[in-house]
Write a structure and sequence with these properties.
α7 (290-303) packs parallel to α8 and α8 (321-329) runs parallel beside α9. The protein has 12 helices and 21 strands. Residues 1-105 have low confidence and may be disordered. By secondary structure, the chain is of the alpha+beta class. The strands form 5 sheets. Strands 2, 3, 15, 16, 19 and 20 form a 6-stranded antiparallel beta sheet that branches. A 6-stranded mixed beta sheet has the order 12-13-14-17-18-21, sandwiched between helices. It has a 4-stranded antiparallel beta sheet with strand order 8-7-9-10, with helices on one face.
């Protein structure tokens, strides 16, 4: 996918053939082997096809794949709307009356003239480039489409995916992945670092640890490479191996060979804070089953005697909007979750679902600059409802709903067809949500996950560098 919905340095989950910049998957989720998988909670009626105007008279004979790829936008949308950043997404119902929906494409009076310019440029290159015999038509067409999506200005949202990337996105929110099982962060000074190791994955079995620096992949140095380039070389087909050269704590580099395999991504992890009756619940993304996983965590926390909850949404890139509604509804007892506005200006309120499990009781939400999309919907709903205190940093600022438009060769467009507001009408797009209590992590600080906290003593936790979590504990103590 090319749009970059997360800020530089955000963790990238290593998945086969999916751009690490994309925080979300945006296709119908496939079956998940994970216990938390649930069917979508919002029905998806078919969406009216998007349409382009017919070729102008000046375009008599497009001789290559460009025009075919452009007009392939006429392939019907699959009925998916996504909050992505991307990443990364949600689902929504759209009109099915047979008339074009609010997301269907219409052309301006100058559209035919501008499309003719594109075709004219295409032919000029084909006819006059000195090495025209070696031109890659598909690469040129894809570059043209990517250029159009970038020119829209909906950075990180409206975007283009190749067929392989679209397929990977289809898998990305199903809860099951093929890879080695690490998240990689880009450190400006040290290069690619392992941010976390997912439990029960090849990476954990191979002994990789958070903080390990990846200095080479299959013998080729990572020096000077972007995080995207490194991730692309690490991911690959199931059953094949990859060799990482790792440097740990400044020691001598060593090689680790890992065979990629399918694994389930744990969406939610939780633990009781040592010495307190506070549950720390972390949600990694709003993939299929997120609501069920949050419900299970809340029930587990209640059974363990929790009297307060910290919901950690730091680094959460988003996911399906029906899961965002479900998760928000666990903490907000009534009213709406968010508002959407389509291209025609029609506004729709999305209500809270009844039966939430923690709609009363102390609550803190942790956010940072990579809290995006559906994670912002939940944050905004809790904040606007006065249900909890938001601690951390301003969120990313995702604010459009994406419609999926599959093209003829399997590639796909994600087009912003709606924008959304918080339940109080606050815009998020390009602005983000400000926390109630602003706390930034120090450059050398490490956010603590439930697995880290679980093994700590109260004094170890108190001396940790996770100032955001420590502030959340202060807030809850002050609240009684």
């Amino acid at each position: 996918m090319l749009g970059n919905a997360r800020r530089p340095g955000a963790p990238a989950l290593l998945r086969p053939m999916i751009d690490p910049n994309s925080p979300d998957g945006i296709a119908t989720p496939g079956p998940s082997a994970g216990p938390a998988a649930q069917p979508p909670s919002i029905p998806l009626p078919p969406m009216a096809p998007a349409r382009l105007p017919p070729p102008p008279p000046s375009v008599a004979r497009p001789r290559s794949g460009l025009w075919r790829l452009m007009t392939a936008v006429m392939v019907p949308v699959l009925g998916l709307l996504l909050f992505t950043g991307g990443l990364v997404i949600g689902r929504s119902t759209l009109p099915t009356t047979g008339e074009p929906s609010a997301s269907s494409s219409t052309s301006s009076p100058s559209a035919s003239t501008e499309l003719a310019l594109i075709d004219e440029a295409w032919h000029a290159i084909q006819d006059h480039y000195v090495d025209a015999a070696h031109l890659n038509d598909q690469a040129m067409a894809y570059a043209a489409i990517q250029g159009m999506t970038q020119a829209v200005g909906d950075v990180g949202h409206t975007s283009f995916l190749t067929a392989a990337e679209a397929k990977a996105v289809d898998e990305s929110l199903s809860g099951t992945f093929v890879g080695i099982g690490v998240q990689v962060d880009s450190d400006i000074t040290n290069g690619p670092m392992i941010n976390s190791v997912i439990p029960n994955t090849p990476a954990q079995e191979a002994g990789l640890k958070r903080g390990d620096k990846i200095v080479a992949v299959n013998g080729t140095s990572t020096s000077g490479e972007t995080i995207d380039q490194v991730v692309t070389r690490i991911r690959g087909p199931e059953g094949e191996s990859v060799t990482l050269t790792v440097e740990r704590s400044g020691g001598k580099p060593f090689d680790v060979t890992i065979v990629r395999r399918k694994f389930d991504l744990p969406l939610v992890s939780w633990t009781m804070v040592p010495g307190r009756t506070i549950a720390l619940i972390r949600l990694d993304q709003f993939a299929t089953g997120a609501t069920k996983a949050i419900e299970d965590a809340i029930n587990g926390a209640k059974s363990a005697g929790a009297t307060a909850v910290i919901l950690d949404l730091r680094g959460n890139p988003g996911g399906y909007v029906n899961e965002a509604v479900g998760v928000a509804s666990q903490f907000v007892g009534d009213g709406i979750v968010y508002r959407s506005i389509d291209a025609s200006g029609t506004e729709k309120d999305v209500p809270v679902e009844p039966g939430g499990l923690w709609t009363q009781g102390p609550l803190v939400v942790l956010t940072d600059g990579n809290t995006a999309s559906s994670a912002e919907i939940v944050t905004g709903a809790i904040q606007d409802a006065g249900r909890g205190t938001v601690v951390g940093e301003k969120t990313f600022g995702t604010g459009t709903v994406l419609g999926r438009f599959d093209l003829a060769d399997g590639s796909s467009l994600r087009i912003g067809v709606e924008r959304w507001l918080t339940r109080a009408g606050r815009p998020i797009w390009h602005e983000g949500l400000e926390p109630d209590v602003k706390v930034a992590l120090a450059a050398n600080a490490t956010p603590l996950y439930p697995a880290d906290v679980r093994s700590m003593t109260p004094s170890q936790l108190a001396s940790s560098t996770d100032s955001q979590l420590l502030k959340a504990l202060e807030v809850l103590k002050a609240d009684g």
